[in-house]
Amino acid sequence: MDYQLNLTKYLCPLPIVMTKRAMMELAVGDSLTLDMNHSTSMRDIRQLCEQLNYSLTLLENSDKHFKLRIQK
């Protein structure tokens, strides 16, 4: 199943906290698509995925918008 999380309205540390909480709810094979607009949060989420051994894919990267997919 693919879940969506829009983080564009939030500043650090809320995007990382909300993402981690959502990641803990994923079943094996599920994915979480994140919409975000802060590169700092993107770096933090990359580190979190590495620590928890989740797959991370960059779907969109423009000046002010990032779309990421996390898969368990």
UniProtKB/TrEMBL annotation:
Family annotation (InterPro entries): TusA-like, TusA-like_sf
Matching Pfam families: TusA (PF01206)
Top-level lineage group: Bacteria
Domain UPF0033: 4-72
Ranges that cross the membrane: none
SUPFAM superfamilies tied to this protein: SirA-like (SSF64307)
Entry similarity comment: Belongs to the sulfur carrier protein TusA family.
Protein name, entry field: SirA family protein
